[in-house]
Amino acid sequence: MRRIAILNQKGGVGKTTTSVNLGAALARAGKRVCILDLDPQAHSTTHLGIEPDGKMPSMYDVLIDNKPLAQVRQPIDDNLWLVGSDINLAAAEVELAGVVGREVILRDLLAADGVREGEAPAEPPPRRTPDGPTARQEPRPPIQAFDFVLMDCAPSLGVLTLNALCAASEVFIPLQPHFLALHGLSKLLETTALVVRRINPGLRVTGIILCMCEANTKLAQEVERDLESFLSGSRNNNVPWNQARVFNARIRRNIKLAEAPSFGKSIFSYAPSCNGAEDYLALAMEVLGEPMPKVISAKVKIGETVDAQAPR
Protein backbone atom coordinates (compact mmCIF):
# COMPACT_ATOMS: atom_id res chain seq x y z
CA MET A 1 0.00 0.00 0.00
CA ARG A 2 1.31 3.44 -0.96
CA ARG A 3 0.51 6.21 1.53
CA ILE A 4 0.89 9.56 -0.23
CA ALA A 5 0.55 13.02 1.32
CA ILE A 6 -0.41 15.63 -1.27
CA LEU A 7 1.03 18.73 0.25
CA ASN A 8 1.90 22.38 -0.27
CA GLN A 9 1.62 25.10 2.36
CA LYS A 10 0.59 27.53 -0.37
CA GLY A 11 -3.12 27.57 -1.16
CA GLY A 12 -4.67 27.45 -4.62
CA VAL A 13 -2.02 25.27 -6.26
CA GLY A 14 -4.22 22.24 -6.99
CA LYS A 15 -3.90 19.99 -3.93
CA THR A 16 -7.58 19.09 -3.68
CA THR A 17 -8.06 18.87 -7.44
CA THR A 18 -5.08 16.54 -7.61
CA SER A 19 -6.13 14.43 -4.61
CA VAL A 20 -9.63 13.84 -5.98
CA ASN A 21 -8.87 13.37 -9.65
CA LEU A 22 -5.66 11.39 -9.23
CA GLY A 23 -7.57 9.16 -6.80
CA ALA A 24 -10.45 8.77 -9.26
CA ALA A 25 -8.03 7.94 -12.09
CA LEU A 26 -6.24 5.30 -10.00
CA ALA A 27 -9.61 3.83 -9.00
CA ARG A 28 -10.63 3.57 -12.66
CA ALA A 29 -7.35 1.82 -13.31
CA GLY A 30 -8.51 -0.92 -10.95
CA LYS A 31 -6.64 0.21 -7.84
CA ARG A 32 -8.42 0.49 -4.50
CA VAL A 33 -8.06 4.07 -3.30
CA CYS A 34 -8.94 5.82 -0.04
CA ILE A 35 -8.76 9.63 0.17
CA LEU A 36 -8.28 11.24 3.60
CA ASP A 37 -9.50 14.85 3.73
CA LEU A 38 -7.23 16.57 6.28
CA ASP A 39 -8.32 20.11 5.42
CA PRO A 40 -10.98 21.84 7.61
CA GLN A 41 -12.25 23.53 4.44
CA ALA A 42 -13.45 20.04 3.41
CA HIS A 43 -12.96 20.71 -0.29
CA SER A 44 -12.21 17.07 -1.16
CA THR A 45 -15.35 16.05 0.70
CA THR A 46 -17.48 18.56 -1.20
CA HIS A 47 -15.75 17.72 -4.49
CA LEU A 48 -16.81 14.08 -4.12
CA GLY A 49 -20.45 14.89 -3.43
CA ILE A 50 -20.59 14.65 0.39
CA GLU A 51 -22.11 17.60 2.25
CA PRO A 52 -19.71 18.59 5.10
CA ASP A 53 -22.50 19.56 7.48
CA GLY A 54 -20.85 18.31 10.66
CA LYS A 55 -23.57 15.69 11.27
CA MET A 56 -21.64 12.66 10.03
CA PRO A 57 -18.41 11.23 11.51
CA SER A 58 -15.32 12.85 9.98
CA MET A 59 -11.55 13.20 10.37
CA TYR A 60 -12.27 15.25 13.49
CA ASP A 61 -13.74 12.19 15.21
CA VAL A 62 -10.80 10.11 14.01
CA LEU A 63 -8.13 12.43 15.41
CA ILE A 64 -9.88 13.68 18.56
CA ASP A 65 -11.97 10.69 19.65
CA ASN A 66 -9.84 7.91 18.11
CA LYS A 67 -12.84 6.74 16.09
CA PRO A 68 -11.79 3.84 13.83
CA LEU A 69 -11.27 4.86 10.22
CA ALA A 70 -13.46 1.95 9.14
CA GLN A 71 -16.46 3.61 10.81
CA VAL A 72 -15.88 6.93 9.05
CA ARG A 73 -14.84 5.76 5.59
CA GLN A 74 -17.54 6.26 2.93
CA PRO A 75 -17.83 4.60 -0.50
CA ILE A 76 -17.86 7.10 -3.36
CA ASP A 77 -17.47 5.01 -6.51
CA ASP A 78 -16.07 1.69 -7.62
CA ASN A 79 -12.69 1.27 -5.86
CA LEU A 80 -12.89 4.79 -4.39
CA TRP A 81 -13.49 5.65 -0.72
CA LEU A 82 -13.35 8.86 1.32
CA VAL A 83 -12.73 9.76 4.94
CA GLY A 84 -14.38 13.17 4.92
CA SER A 85 -13.80 16.41 6.77
CA ASP A 86 -15.86 19.34 8.04
CA ILE A 87 -15.34 22.66 9.79
CA ASN A 88 -15.01 20.91 13.18
CA LEU A 89 -11.54 19.82 12.09
CA ALA A 90 -10.37 23.42 12.51
CA ALA A 91 -10.66 22.93 16.28
CA ALA A 92 -8.36 19.90 16.21
CA GLU A 93 -5.22 22.04 16.09
CA VAL A 94 -6.15 23.63 19.45
CA GLU A 95 -7.53 20.50 21.07
CA LEU A 96 -4.44 18.49 20.21
CA ALA A 97 -2.01 21.16 21.40
CA GLY A 98 -1.42 19.50 24.77
CA VAL A 99 -1.68 15.88 23.64
CA VAL A 100 1.49 13.81 23.90
CA GLY A 101 2.35 12.21 20.56
CA ARG A 102 -0.20 14.31 18.67
CA GLU A 103 1.87 14.12 15.47
CA VAL A 104 1.52 10.33 15.18
CA ILE A 105 -2.19 9.87 15.94
CA LEU A 106 -3.10 9.24 12.30
CA ARG A 107 -0.16 6.89 11.78
CA ASP A 108 -1.22 4.77 14.75
CA LEU A 109 -4.86 4.72 13.63
CA LEU A 110 -3.87 3.60 10.14
CA ALA A 111 -1.84 0.79 11.67
CA ALA A 112 -4.79 -0.28 13.82
CA ASP A 113 -7.52 0.35 11.24
CA GLY A 114 -10.66 -1.70 11.78
CA VAL A 115 -13.95 -1.73 13.64
CA ARG A 116 -13.61 -2.22 17.38
CA GLU A 117 -15.22 -5.27 18.90
CA GLY A 118 -18.88 -4.70 19.63
CA GLU A 119 -19.15 -1.63 17.40
CA ALA A 120 -21.02 -1.58 14.11
CA PRO A 121 -19.90 0.57 11.16
CA ALA A 122 -21.84 3.77 10.65
CA GLU A 123 -24.12 3.84 7.63
CA PRO A 124 -22.79 5.74 4.61
CA PRO A 125 -24.41 9.17 4.34
CA PRO A 126 -26.53 10.28 1.37
CA ARG A 127 -24.59 11.64 -1.59
CA ARG A 128 -25.61 14.56 -3.75
CA THR A 129 -26.74 13.43 -7.18
CA PRO A 130 -28.58 15.21 -9.99
CA ASP A 131 -31.69 13.19 -9.11
CA GLY A 132 -31.50 13.75 -5.37
CA PRO A 133 -29.68 12.04 -2.47
CA THR A 134 -29.00 8.33 -2.60
CA ALA A 135 -27.27 6.05 -0.13
CA ARG A 136 -24.67 3.40 -0.91
CA GLN A 137 -24.55 0.35 1.35
CA GLU A 138 -21.26 -1.47 0.95
CA PRO A 139 -18.90 -3.35 3.28
CA ARG A 140 -16.02 -1.28 4.63
CA PRO A 141 -12.63 -2.92 3.93
CA PRO A 142 -9.66 -2.46 6.29
CA ILE A 143 -7.00 -0.01 5.24
CA GLN A 144 -4.66 -2.87 4.35
CA ALA A 145 -7.01 -3.74 1.49
CA PHE A 146 -6.25 -0.46 -0.31
CA ASP A 147 -3.54 0.05 -2.89
CA PHE A 148 -3.34 3.82 -2.32
CA VAL A 149 -4.13 6.15 0.57
CA LEU A 150 -4.07 9.78 -0.62
CA MET A 151 -4.02 12.51 2.04
CA ASP A 152 -5.32 15.92 0.99
CA CYS A 153 -3.51 18.30 3.35
CA ALA A 154 -4.44 21.77 4.52
CA PRO A 155 -2.45 24.76 3.15
CA SER A 156 -0.39 25.02 6.34
CA LEU A 157 2.35 23.20 8.24
CA GLY A 158 0.38 22.63 11.45
CA VAL A 159 -0.60 19.53 13.44
CA LEU A 160 -2.90 18.16 10.73
CA THR A 161 -0.19 18.32 8.09
CA LEU A 162 2.38 16.83 10.47
CA ASN A 163 0.01 13.90 11.05
CA ALA A 164 -0.09 13.33 7.30
CA LEU A 165 3.70 13.49 7.01
CA CYS A 166 4.14 11.04 9.89
CA ALA A 167 1.59 8.61 8.43
CA ALA A 168 2.79 8.84 4.80
CA SER A 169 5.60 7.07 3.02
CA GLU A 170 5.63 9.49 0.08
CA VAL A 171 4.96 13.17 -0.58
CA PHE A 172 3.61 14.59 -3.83
CA ILE A 173 3.90 18.36 -4.15
CA PRO A 174 1.48 20.13 -6.53
CA LEU A 175 3.21 23.26 -7.74
CA GLN A 176 2.09 26.11 -9.93
CA PRO A 177 4.98 27.11 -12.23
CA HIS A 178 5.31 30.61 -10.78
CA PHE A 179 8.27 32.18 -9.00
CA LEU A 180 6.59 32.61 -5.58
CA ALA A 181 5.37 29.02 -5.59
CA LEU A 182 8.90 27.82 -6.28
CA HIS A 183 10.26 30.16 -3.60
CA GLY A 184 7.99 28.59 -0.94
CA LEU A 185 9.10 25.09 -1.84
CA SER A 186 12.25 25.37 0.29
CA LYS A 187 10.26 25.80 3.53
CA LEU A 188 8.15 22.76 2.70
CA LEU A 189 11.23 20.65 2.02
CA GLU A 190 12.81 21.81 5.30
CA THR A 191 9.72 20.64 7.18
CA THR A 192 9.85 17.29 5.40
CA ALA A 193 13.52 16.87 6.33
CA LEU A 194 12.72 17.66 9.97
CA VAL A 195 9.97 15.03 10.07
CA VAL A 196 12.34 12.48 8.52
CA ARG A 197 15.05 13.17 11.11
CA ARG A 198 12.79 13.09 14.15
CA ILE A 199 9.68 10.96 13.49
CA ASN A 200 9.34 9.23 10.12
CA PRO A 201 12.72 8.21 8.65
CA GLY A 202 11.08 6.36 5.76
CA LEU A 203 9.33 9.44 4.32
CA ARG A 204 10.43 10.57 0.86
CA VAL A 205 9.43 13.34 -1.51
CA THR A 206 8.91 11.32 -4.68
CA GLY A 207 7.09 13.61 -7.10
CA ILE A 208 6.32 17.20 -8.03
CA ILE A 209 3.17 17.83 -10.05
CA LEU A 210 3.00 20.98 -12.18
CA CYS A 211 -0.58 22.25 -12.09
CA MET A 212 -2.41 25.04 -13.92
CA CYS A 213 0.29 25.00 -16.54
CA GLU A 214 0.57 27.33 -19.48
CA ALA A 215 3.47 25.60 -21.15
CA ASN A 216 4.00 28.23 -23.81
CA THR A 217 4.87 31.00 -21.35
CA LYS A 218 8.49 31.90 -20.76
CA LEU A 219 7.96 32.05 -16.98
CA ALA A 220 6.66 28.47 -16.80
CA GLN A 221 9.61 27.20 -18.82
CA GLU A 222 12.11 29.05 -16.59
CA VAL A 223 10.52 27.72 -13.40
CA GLU A 224 10.58 24.16 -14.78
CA ARG A 225 14.28 24.50 -15.65
CA ASP A 226 15.10 25.86 -12.19
CA LEU A 227 13.17 23.05 -10.55
CA GLU A 228 14.87 20.34 -12.61
CA SER A 229 18.25 21.90 -11.86
CA PHE A 230 17.54 21.97 -8.13
CA LEU A 231 16.45 18.34 -8.05
CA SER A 232 19.43 17.22 -10.14
CA GLY A 233 21.75 18.93 -7.67
CA SER A 234 20.20 16.97 -4.79
CA ARG A 235 20.76 13.48 -6.22
CA ASN A 236 23.92 12.75 -4.21
CA ASN A 237 22.80 14.49 -1.02
CA ASN A 238 21.28 12.77 2.00
CA VAL A 239 17.93 14.55 1.80
CA PRO A 240 14.37 13.17 1.52
CA TRP A 241 13.94 14.62 -1.98
CA ASN A 242 17.11 13.20 -3.55
CA GLN A 243 15.06 10.81 -5.71
CA ALA A 244 12.19 13.20 -6.44
CA ARG A 245 11.13 13.82 -10.02
CA VAL A 246 8.96 16.28 -11.84
CA PHE A 247 6.17 14.23 -13.39
CA ASN A 248 6.06 14.42 -17.15
CA ALA A 249 2.27 14.81 -17.01
CA ARG A 250 1.41 18.50 -16.85
CA ILE A 251 -2.00 19.55 -15.53
CA ARG A 252 -3.14 22.25 -17.91
CA ARG A 253 -5.54 25.04 -17.05
CA ASN A 254 -9.00 23.68 -17.76
CA ILE A 255 -12.36 25.20 -16.87
CA LYS A 256 -13.95 21.75 -16.50
CA LEU A 257 -11.64 21.02 -13.56
CA ALA A 258 -12.99 24.14 -11.85
CA GLU A 259 -16.62 23.25 -12.63
CA ALA A 260 -16.56 19.61 -11.46
CA PRO A 261 -16.62 20.30 -7.65
CA SER A 262 -19.92 22.19 -7.89
CA PHE A 263 -21.50 18.99 -9.25
CA GLY A 264 -19.91 16.78 -6.57
CA LYS A 265 -18.04 14.76 -9.19
CA SER A 266 -14.52 13.91 -10.22
CA ILE A 267 -13.44 15.09 -13.65
CA PHE A 268 -13.94 11.54 -15.00
CA SER A 269 -17.60 11.57 -14.03
CA TYR A 270 -18.19 15.18 -15.05
CA ALA A 271 -16.25 15.66 -18.30
CA PRO A 272 -14.27 12.51 -19.16
CA SER A 273 -13.13 13.71 -22.58
CA CYS A 274 -11.71 17.10 -21.53
CA ASN A 275 -8.04 18.02 -21.21
CA GLY A 276 -8.25 17.84 -17.42
CA ALA A 277 -9.30 14.18 -17.52
CA GLU A 278 -6.58 13.40 -20.04
CA ASP A 279 -3.93 15.08 -17.88
CA TYR A 280 -4.90 13.34 -14.65
CA LEU A 281 -5.14 10.01 -16.44
CA ALA A 282 -1.61 10.54 -17.75
CA LEU A 283 -0.46 11.38 -14.22
CA ALA A 284 -2.09 8.24 -12.78
CA MET A 285 -0.46 6.04 -15.39
CA GLU A 286 2.90 7.66 -14.62
CA VAL A 287 2.40 7.04 -10.89
CA LEU A 288 1.64 3.40 -11.70
CA GLY A 289 4.52 3.15 -14.15
CA GLU A 290 2.17 2.00 -16.92
CA PRO A 291 1.57 3.22 -20.49
CA MET A 292 -1.40 5.44 -21.30
CA PRO A 293 -4.60 3.53 -22.16
CA LYS A 294 -6.36 4.06 -25.45
CA VAL A 295 -9.75 4.72 -23.89
CA ILE A 296 -10.85 7.55 -21.63
CA SER A 297 -14.54 7.31 -20.77
CA ALA A 298 -16.82 7.75 -17.80
CA LYS A 299 -18.54 4.49 -18.74
CA VAL A 300 -15.51 2.44 -19.74
CA LYS A 301 -12.90 1.56 -17.17
CA ILE A 302 -9.30 2.41 -17.88
CA GLY A 303 -7.58 -0.39 -19.73
CA GLU A 304 -10.71 -1.68 -21.45
CA THR A 305 -11.14 -1.48 -25.19
CA VAL A 306 -14.22 -0.53 -27.16
CA ASP A 307 -15.62 -2.05 -30.33
CA ALA A 308 -14.69 0.36 -33.10
CA GLN A 309 -18.09 -0.21 -34.72
CA ALA A 310 -20.08 0.47 -31.55
CA PRO A 311 -22.22 3.61 -31.54
CA ARG A 312 -20.87 6.59 -29.58
Plain-language structure description:
This protein is of the alpha/beta class and 312 residues long. The chain is 34% helix and 13% strand. It has helices at 15-28, 43-47, 59-65, 69-72, 92-95, 105-111, 159-167, 179-183, 185-198, 218-232, 255-259, 267-270, 275-288, and strands spanning 2-6, 33-38, 74-77, 80-83, 148-153, 170-175, 204-210, 245-246. The chain starts with a strand and ends in a 24-residue tail after the last helix. Residues 115-137, 295-301 and 303-312 have low confidence and may be disordered.
| Residues in helices, as a percent range | 25-40%
The total of helices stands at 13
Q: What is CATH's topology name?
A: Rossmann fold
What is the tally of beta strands?
A: 8
As residue ranges, the low-confidence spans are 115-137, 295-301, 303-312
Structural class: alpha/beta
Spatial strand sequence of the major β-sheet: 3-4-2-5-1-6-7-8
> How far is the first residue's CA from the last residue's CA?
37 Å
Radius of gyration: 19 Å
pLDDT averaged over residues: 83
How many structural domains are formed by the residues? 1
